[in-house]
Design goal:
The protein is an alpha/beta fold and 453 residues long. The protein has three domains: 32 residues; 208 residues, Rossmann fold; 173 residues, Ribosomal Protein S5, domain 2. 26% of the residues lie in helices and 26% in strands. It has eleven helices and 23 strands. The longest helix is centred in the middle third of the chain and has 18 residues. The chain is globular and about 75 Å long. The structure holds thymidine-5'-diphosphate and magnesium ion. The site of thymidine-5'-diphosphate (TYD) has 15 residues, from α2 and α3.
């Protein structure tokens, strides 16, 4: 591009910072009206040291893996890929009240007690509140500094004085930077603060964690937009009234996003669950009606999940279907197939289906377990306690194969299950090496017969 011809000024949206060479009535990015005003084009972009970069031959680049620091919370470290990379910016998102502050305060305190100090920048809670929480969590707070400053540049100046080994900013929605004119919490502010933190983390080689709230309707006031900027995006999920929490990787520039961390919220904060499969099926009764177990996959981690269903005569003209932790559309599909292909009379029945422990299972591999649970409830007959079920249900009632069969079977065998109902199609590539007795079925009808008769 010919630089001399570039316009000297640009028009920028006051809401989100979107830039355009000409004035626009409506912002194409955030759709606000009349938000554009002219301002001089910033020169030099974001270059920090002023020197233009030289191209480097890839074979000459130092290829050692990034140095990582373990946080001391194994489930957290696992999701990060074995610890946090120096100078990385990690976004931890999640619903309000899910435990983000708890998790990061624990991580900061553990990192501080293991060596270099940590700073917890709190824009939401006072130092006293943080102290009370730390006391409840049994954290000593040595070398852990709390900073209640919402002006980001002032906060970073203070952080530099302390020179910590780790920084937490809780939350990104509460800090603001004088470099952007928009109001705190606006999209432009979120973007500006995140970019400043990114630059700061990279230049000092210090890992920075930022907390981002997600609103209930899923579309987040911020974090989605920040996902492009940061190095790592993790989401902490779980049902509010269940004590299990899953920490899930969504993006990781330094590792795989296939890992999940499983925690339990206790009176003393979040505790890693070492054997999650065991935990999720621990309360299952041996002859429970309306219950089936599926070896589900969370990323690359197999997890045994109990699916429950309850059918009961409907008192309303339109029977209801409720799915907790399962895809509603999968429930509709499975119940439609059960009525049409197996002749199960579900027309006058309400169906409530749920996954135990506040987990969410969205993979179609859980279809067969869901179907078994529904039929088991409707016939008042339990599925044998040593059976797991694995298969996707197709519209014509056929069973389809699922991915990573051996891994799932391995986990089921480890937990003492002895038989697995699965799609015949799964065995086409050869039988998997497993200690389980396999019960292949071509159709849902056949699988139900094997599982319940
Ligand atoms: P919090 O970390 O404040 O959530 P977030 O920062 O994501 O908004 O966690 C809030 C919930 O966690 C609150 O409802 C109380 C519960 N909690 C415990 O059950 N045990 C504990 O030890 C702590 C600190 C919190
Ligand atoms: Mg919080």
């Amino acid at each position: 591009m010919n630089i001399t011809k570039q316009a000297r000024s640009v028009f920028a949206c006051a809401e989100c910072g979107y830039e355009s060479p000409k004035w626009l009535g409506r912002c194409p990015d955030c759709t606000s009206w009349n938000s554009f005003s002219e301002r001089p084009r910033a020169s030099g972009g974001q270059r920090v040291n002023g020197a233009p970069a030289a191209a480097v031959e890839l074979s000459c680049v130092d290829g050692d893996s990034e140095p990582r620091v373990a946080l001391g919370l194994p489930e957290f470290d696992r999701v990060l890929g074995g610890g946090v990379v120096a100078g990385s910016l990690v976004l931890v998102g999640g619903d309000p009240g899910i435990g983000k502050s708890t998790l990061l305060l624990q991580a900061a305190a553990l990192a501080a007690s293991a060596g270099r100090s940590a700073v917890y920048v709190s824009g939401e809670e006072s130092a006293r509140q943080v102290k009370m929480r730390a006391a409840r969590l049994g954290l000593s707070g040595d070398r852990l500094f709390v900073l209640t400053e919402t002006d980001l540049q002032a906060a970073l100046a203070e952080v530099e004085r302390i020179s910590p080994g780790l920084v937490v900013v809780d939350s990104i929605q509460t800090v603001h930077s004088p470099a952007a004119e928009q109001a705190p919490g606006s999209i432009a502010q979120l973007r500006q603060c995140t970019m400043e933190l990114m630059r700061w983390a990279k230049s000092g080689g210090v890992p920075v964690f930022i907390v981002g709230h997600v609103t209930k309707d899923g579309d987040i006031a911020g974090p989605r937009l920040l996902e492009h900027i940061v190095d790592v995006v993790l989401y902490l999920e779980g049902e509010r009234f269940s004590h299990y929490r899953l920490l899930r990787g969504v993006k990781n520039r330094f590792g795989s996003v296939d890992e999940i961390g499983v925690f339990e919220m206790t009176g003393e904060g979040l505790r890693g669950v070492e054997n999650p499969s065991q935990a999720f099926i621990a309360e299952r009764a041996a002859d429970a009606v309306g219950s089936a177990v599926v070896p589900a996959l969370e990323g690359s981690r197999p997890l045994m999940v109990e699916v429950q269903a309850l059918t009961s005569p409907s008192v309303t003209p339109a029977p209801r279907r409720t799915a907790n932790g399962l895809d509603f559309s999968r429930l509709l599909l499975v119940s439609a197939v059960l009525s049409r292909r197996l002749g199960l009379s579900l027309a006058g029945q309400d169906i409530i289906a749920s996954v135990v422990g506040g987990l969410r299972v969205h993979e179609p591999a859980a279809d067969l377990a869901l179907a078994l649970a529904i039929v088991s409830s409707s016939r008042d007959k339990p599925v044998a306690a040593d059976i797991v079920a694995l298969g996707e249900v197709g519209l014509s009632g056929e069973l389809r194969s699922v991915s990573q069969l051996e891994r799932r079977l391995g986990e089921a065998a480890r937990l003492g299950f002895r038989r697995c109902l699965l799609a015949e199609a799964s065995l086409r590539g050869g039988a998997p090496a497993t200690a389980l007795e396999l019960m292949p079925a071509p159709t849902l009808r056949e699988a139900i017969r094997l599982g319940l008769e």
